[in-house]
Amino acid sequence: MNILIVYAHPQPQSLNGTIKSFMINHLESSGHQVRVSDLYQMNWKPTLDEQDNLMRDSSAPFHPSLDSKAAYENGTQSPDIEAEQEKLRWADTVIFQFPLWWFSMPAIMKGWFERVYAYGFAYGYGEHSDHHWGDRYGEGNMSGKKAMLLVTAGGWESHYSARGVNGPIDDLLFPIHHGMLFYPGFEVLPPFVVYRTGKTDEERLQHIFENLSQRLDTLQTTPPIPFRRQNGGDYHIPALTLREEITPSTSGFAAHLSRKDTVK
Fold this sequence. Notes:
Layout: E1 2-7, H1 15-29, E2 33-38, H2 64-74, H3 79-90, E3 93-99, H4 107-116, E4 146-152, H5 169-182, E5 187-188, E6 192-194, H6 202-217
Parallel strand pairs: 1-2, 1-3, 3-4, 4-5, 4-6
């Protein structure tokens, strides 16, 4: 399997760096092909701006999505963007590894999504009609590929539980899982989360490695998060709201998960 690791941590000697090295060694020793985009090491440019289209008309106002579309269609994207898009085409599975900073990913990784997810590459295509509203949320160019988050957090696991003060970890990661991964078509695997990173001794590190090994060895068989497909019949189109008979007593993030006991 071809596996791309998109990694964001500024310190190679960090816990994240140790986990990344272990993950690469484990995957390669298991026969997988691995590529790594180490964003800090690459000095990745995080800002989406007019420089990303090498041939744009500088007299025209910058329009993020339309400039992105023109650059992608005309083959005038910045080379670093094209290189990351090619890695995504190559990959069967993508693992995004990052520390949870202020309840989200580091800015440099957010910038990776903003620049690499060009209009026409990750969004902005597909039929728009009374029964199909673009190829997204379960469809798209990333269809057939898997994605997983590997996240480290300084807080306790209980802090991110259903009644924890930080909010449930699944809710905090929903915008990434659903809006950034499922949107262009990835099958999104449950995240691998390491809590209380500041309390990691050698014994605990070995325990993390054991659990991570199990996850990595089952990437192909782990059931994805059961998000509802936008064009699968659960949503009104073009309003894109759930049909009234779909889990009528549920709202918020949980309503967009399809369960065996769903009322239809």
